[in-house]
Structure formats: structure tokens, C-alpha cells
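USER: Please consider what follows.
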Amino acid sequence: MEKLILKAQKGDSEAFIEAINYILPQLYKIAKTRLNSEEDIGDAIQDTIISAFENISTLKNLEFFKTWVVRILINKCNDIYKKNNKVVYLETLDNCSEIHCSSNDAAIDKIDIQDAIKHLSKDYQNTINLYYGSGFTTKEIGQILNESEGTIKSRLSRARNILKNYLLNYREVR
């Protein structure tokens, strides 16, 4: 991988594309945890790839390519999230009313870990998804989010407890 990055830094666009294709599934998973629509996910990934390509020469430590690209992606997702947070889509309201107003137990049965994760704050969501969904270590997550490893460990622990309590309370209500 480091050879590809070195070639990309020297202007080899094919090497860059190959390196991006290697991490693309993880980029998609991360964007999916932050954004709801496929269009926004695609935009975030596209903006990330363009930004990474334009700035590949600034990457000093080749072994941190993946971490560097994920950090760019999270920033792009945050920008899109902030922009979209000001807009309420009618289809979202329709889905929400169907789920909450319906007495159909099938809608209630669809709850899973991803639904529970959506109830967490964005900081906790990022940490959980990067750790479990993408397999990053707490140290790597700290680098991606520009936080100390201790903060990431604490956040991970708190998020697990919140999820546990949420899921236990959900089962009691049912």
C-alpha cells in the first residue's frame, strides 16, 4: 500500500485510484453511519477523493494514508450533515409517522443495533462505528478525530453503556 501512496504522491493517478479502491468499502461504511441518503454518501465520498487527490503531496507519513482519508471523509460528512440539518425532508416525516403512529408490531421488531446507535450523540456514533464497523484501533480513532486515545476509550465505554441501557429498556417496554 505504501508503494502505491508513494507513486500517487509522485503524480501517478492510477496508483491513487488503486489505493482508494482498496479502502472504498470502509469509506462507504463510515459515510453511511453519518449520513442518511445515498446521494449525500456519494457526495461525501466523491468530495473526499477529490480532496485527497489534490492534497496527497501533503501526506507526510505514508502508513497513515487510510487514517488521513477517513479524517477528510468525516469532515466532509460533518459539512453535509450540518447543511442538511437545516432541511427537513417530507419523506423522512412520512417514514417517521408510519413507524411511530402504526400499531403494527412489525415496525417495532425492526429495531437493531444500528437503530440504537442512531440514538447516540454524533461523537459516540463516530467512535462506535469507527471501532466496530471499520476496525480501527482506539489510537487510530484518536488520530482520525484529533482526540486523545484516553478520550476515545472513555467515549467507547460510555457509548457501550448507553447502548446496553437503551436495548435493555427497549426490551422491557416490549
